[in-house]
């Protein structure tokens, strides 16, 4: 059951509780059955969501306390030819009726052309087909990014299953990403393969990464410390920036609610010998009242640039990349006083690629990153700098792809807060080895990494994964892995810090099955378990940070995907339990249940899309935040040969919701962009 609000029926076993779920993974009093069709059956409540595919129904119940706006009806949506998908749910006539009218009823014959193969790099550090990955991987491509009209990376991620967002209000405000119930600092963010997580408190600055400079986003769910080291407990998010393989030029201007203005310019030239290009994005908004207990409006501005150049030589290919974002965030402090801070995030990388013979290749990346925040009303600041060398050598044999390499990093972290602070250096050394095994229907992936970290000593992490294609339709995967997060400088030397903290460590198990209904249709089931120990938490007995926390995370995700030439439909339902292993309390800011639906339709020169997130309630500090339904409507229309008009209605239901206690999320709002493209 997706609980969209707090219910007095906390225990379904009580006689007065009638929250029956036809499909539920609830641990207490759950019942489950498969329906042979998607029609309602005796006992199904008016608030049930009925989702069916290929003759199988999924019915998700909503509590009586959840209220849709007045004037509701039921709508049925049919698509994908003989593989009909039916959604029967309460729909507001004035909003959803228009959205679905373009595709209801719809009978579409599957396209003759098979879906294109998607190549990824993050799952194994080498280019492979996404179909060959032995761990769940999601890709957000450039087409989806442009359609979303998202203002930052976190807005792109919020409609992806298994990802929870915790945000302190509007644009530019502090944002946390939780993958599959893990902590916000258990997500590793890479930009073109370069680590950009800071060496101080908190996670990476997802709220400052402009989608306009992104070509695609690869999301790997699961432990990956054996490949990338610290912080890769919940998963890895790799942002691949835009580059061109032919001369091109883009320019766009946007305007929207809260006096939001934006502009983008992107261009590049390319030839057989190399390419060079740049993208620049500017955003400025007056913002809105971000706190529920204050009527003070807070704004945000951001200027982002991404530059690249690469050239082919006789010895290989040499490239240089630079990404930088900077601006000002206005917010309210603990006492609701208006304050603001300047931020700068940048990453520069020099990359050398070599093909050595017909079977071997080498990749060397020398990078330097900065994460800097400066308070404007005080001398307080926090800053991270990291110089890193990442080298790998790959040998492709008949049945194996062997990769070995080294990682060296020298990091400086400094901060001042309320007159006290620190300035500390940390050195990290690591060696890694992994093997991608291809035996036809059988696939394997083995990886191991030895990390020598200056703060806590050494750590060995590993992955062992197996994939099996039963036939052309059924495939299965299983994986075991370990991961860790090293204590950062704020953990060791900030307020309550303890210099000799140990690393947080995790043991993960994953199981998956995929059924390929046809070339364009697939259904996937994923199960995961993650046990995390030595979590760094505040010990109120002596007011210090200590390794005293444990977490147990269990989850299941079922998803349906259709990829066609004219439309795309994706739906995922996730149920998880993320709890403190000692107290059995729920971990903060993570929902136990969520349902995501993403639909895009192309009709001639028009494209329309809708994204829906139904999230269950979540615990926060001294509060339980009710569940909510967020729906976004997007549209595009081509004007002539080179012009395009894009629009987004954010929160079309005008839902009032919070992802962090007392921080108001965005109300219904409208954004429009005009874009010129030449190629």
CATH architecture of the largest domain: Beta Barrel
Radius of gyration: 25 Å
Distance between the termini: 49 Å
Question: What percent of residues adopt helix (DSSP H or I)?
Answer: under 10%
Beta-strand content estimate: over 45%
Q: Average pLDDT across residues?
A: 86
Task: Please provide a written account of the structure.
The protein is globular and about 65 Å long. The protein has a 22-stranded antiparallel β-barrel. A 5-stranded mixed beta sheet has the order 7-12-13-10-11. Strands 2-1-4-3 form a 4-stranded antiparallel beta sheet. The protein folds into 3 domains: 1-107, no CATH class; 119-239, Ferric Hydroxamate Uptake Protein, Chain A, domain 1 (Beta Complex); 240-678, TonB-dependent receptor, beta-barrel domain (Maltoporin, Chain A). It has 679 residues and is mainly β. 4% of the residues lie in helices and 56% in strands.
How is the topology of this model organized?
Layout: E1 49-53, E2 56-60, E3 72-75, E4 85-92, H1 96-101, E5 119-120, E6 128-129, E7 137-140, H2 142-148, H3 153-157, E8 163-167, E9 175-179, E10 187-191, E11 194-195, E12 214-221, H4 225-228, E13 235-241, E14 248-256, E15 260-270, E16 274-289, E17 297-313, E18 316-332, E19 338-356, E20 360-375, E21 381-396, E22 400-417, E23 420-439, E24 442-453, E25 457-469, E26 474-485, H5 489-493, E27 504-515, E28 521-539, E29 544-563, E30 567-580, E31 593-603, E32 606-615, E33 618-620, E34 623-625, E35 628-639, E36 643-650, E37 669-678
Parallel strand pairs: 10-13
Antiparallel strand pairs: 1-2, 1-4, 3-4, 5-6, 7-12, 8-9, 10-11, 12-13, 14-15, 14-37, 15-16, 16-17, 17-18, 18-19, 19-20, 20-21, 21-22, 22-23, 23-24, 24-25, 25-26, 26-27, 27-28, 28-29, 29-30, 30-31, 31-32, 32-35, 33-34, 35-36, 36-37
